[in-house]
Amino acid sequence: MDAGLPKAEDVFAQPSGGADTREISFEVSPDLKWDSALVAFLLDLEEECRKRKINFFQQGLPQAAQKLLAAALKADTKIEPRQKPSEPVFDKIGSGVLRAKEELDSLLVFLGEIALSFGRLFKGKCYFRQDDFSFVLQRCGASALPLVSLISLLVGVILAFVGAIQLRIFGAQIFIADIVGIAMVRVMGAVMTGVLMSGRTGAAFAAELGIMQVNEEIDALKTLGISPVDYLVVPRILALVVMMPLLTLYADLMGILGGFTISSGMLGINPVEYLQHTRTAVKLSNLWVGLTHSFVFGIIIAVAGCLRGMRCERSAAGVGEATTSAVVSAITAIVIATAIITFICQVLGV
């Protein structure tokens, strides 16, 4: 091996390796000293033999070299991905129905556990740390104010501009105050706050509980005789239900402020007249409808986040899936709840 190894092409360029070659075999001394360069040469030689349709016999090589060559050939073999057999349409529909049934059963069981925990809370038998509740309350409230302020202000600005485009045709720009005020107080303030809190707080709930599930902290609570729903879920639901109406009121105010700023600063509307129209248009019933939305949204976001976190798979990928699923589930449920509440209000004439 001290003289070096030729290239695989050079072997066939020798007079003895011409076109009439049908096979290649080896006969080596037992005292041969070799290294990984021999295996690399043999691998190239085997590939060249395969191209030229020449039989390649490696039986005469050292046993260790044969094993390394076999491993290299196996690693070099391209494995075609196995195609998943297509599933019939009715099988797909059945699988989807079964998954939906499992999800519904899991949700109902979790809601039952929450109901029992709140029953114990009213009896004074549900225990959780007050410090944890205060911390969650702060995260759901004060920490969310900057984001809620920005989005609500911009929503008010957008509503004012959209209203101005149509109302300018009739010279009725003053009714921008009615559009912005009613839309923000009745629906938009609660919906935008709910969507923001779904992506912010709901995802945080799912990730926190999911990591606790992966680290077996929830199992430890069960071992100690502490209900995870009492200790972890109830304070989060209470915190979000308390803070959502307050955040919605703040979002309503910021949205009206955004519409007021654009209307008085760019659309030439008298500020006093704008405020007067807003006060006349926005009824107390609109405020209660918006607060009802926010109360329902708070429950939805907290339940979705905690449910996905508590049912999280014990892996890093499971935590990511739980977080994503919590946000998607909460936003979807918010849209559905908004449609249902709007329909009920329309039927009741509220």
Please provide a written account of the structure.
The chain is mostly helical and 350 residues long. It folds into 2 domains: 8-76, no CATH class; 109-348, no CATH class. Helix content is 74%, strand content 1%. The protein has 12 helices and 2 strands; from the N terminus they run H-E-H-E-H-H-H-H-H-H-H-H-H-H. The chain has helices at residues 8-13, 36-52, 63-76, 89-122, 130-140, 145-167, 176-214, 217-223, 228-265, 271-281, 284-310, 316-348, and strands at 23-24, 55-56. Strands 1-2 form a two-stranded parallel sheet. Helix 11 (284-310) packs antiparallel against helix 12. The termini are far apart.
In short:
The protein has twelve helices and two strands; from the N terminus they run αβαβαααααααααα.
